[in-house]
Design the sequence.
């Protein structure tokens, strides 16, 4: 059930953010700077959405690696 919910949330969020992207340079800079947030216990997906203004609450519970995978596969990085 969790996978179905995640999938539906991803589709909804992708539709809402379909024209919004982040440059590869901005994304790489964010990834490098995230180290400090990681030390504070912050979640990668949440911080990405907050930083770049995406509405992707489904990233909240994912690991850093899984969040990166979804961010890249959903086409948010150009």
Sequence:
């Amino acid at each position: 059930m969790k996978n179905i919910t995640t999938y539906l949330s991803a589709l909804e969020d992708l539709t809402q953010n379909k024209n919004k992207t982040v440059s590869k340079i901005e994304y790489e800079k964010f990834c490098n700077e995230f180290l400090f947030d990681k030390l504070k216990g912050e979640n990668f997906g949440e911080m990405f959405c907050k930083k770049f203004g995406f509405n992707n609450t489904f990233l909240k519970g994912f690991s850093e690696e899984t969040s990166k995978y979804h961010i890249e596969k959903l086409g948010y990085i150009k």
